[in-house]
Design brief:
single chain, 98 residues
Length: 98
């Protein structure tokens, strides 16, 4: 009878150790996923900031090129009579001014 009780206690201890190990593994996995998600949020925020910073860069370049080189420096709002609207501003500058 006592051997049966000892066997049951050993089985209970083994089960407890397995459960504790499983809980630790789940806790570790949860912490890793939380850290990974925080990194993802920070990375996407950085990428969005970078996108916002450089999104209008090409438009600004086009306006500056047009303002400086087209229409003999009269300004980007003055339309040149010999340029077609289908050509980009950069192409117009390169064609007109080499």
């Amino acid at each position: 009878m006592e051997s049966d009780i000892r066997d049951c206690e050993k089985k209970r201890e083994a089960i407890e150790q397995n459960v504790e190990g499983g809980v630790k593994a789940v806790d570790d996995l949860y912490l890793r996923l939380c850290a990974e998600f925080e990194y993802y949020k920070k990375r996407t925020a950085r990428e969005m900031d970078k996108f916002k910073k450089f999104a209008s860069e090409s438009l600004i370049k086009e306006i500056l090129i047009d303002c400086c080189f087209n229409n003999n420096g009269k300004g980007w709002w003055v339309k040149s009579p010999n340029t077609s609207p289908s050509r980009s501003l950069k192409t117009q500058c390169l064609v007109s001014y080499g």
